[in-house]
Amino acid sequence: MSIDLVSDDFWERTAPLLPERPPRRHRHPGRLPVPDRVAVAGIVYVLRKAVAWCDVRVQVVGCSG
């Protein structure tokens, strides 16, 4: 579903505006980050549906808070 929320045209215009990711630490790397497009799809979903981020299920957009 996350692909439906972020069209290719929108992603081509948005991707250059995002900052580069910092390199991961070796000793305590933490949770693996989700792809930027999936995170943007989650933000678009929250804005369109007017729900709180904590109410979004992982199955809907592919990431959680």
Total number of beta strands: 0
**Topology as a string of helices (H) and strands (E):** HHHH
Low-confidence stretches: none
Task: Please outline the major beta sheet.
Answer: none
Give the percentage of residues in beta strands: under 5%
Distance between the termini: 17 Å
Report the radius of gyration as a whole number of Å. 13 Å
Helix content: 40-55%
Total number of helices:
4
Mean pLDDT across the residues is 85
- Structural shape: flat
Instruction: Find the structural class using helix and strand composition.
Output: mainly alpha
Provide structural commentary.
With 65 residues, this protein is mainly α. 45% of the residues lie in helices and 0% in strands. It has helices at 2-5, 8-14, 36-49, 58-61. The mean pLDDT is 85.
Question: What is the fold's blueprint, element by element?
Answer:
Blueprint: H1 2-5, H2 8-14, H3 36-49, H4 58-61
Task: Quickly list its features.
4 helices, mainly alpha, 65 residues, single chain, flat
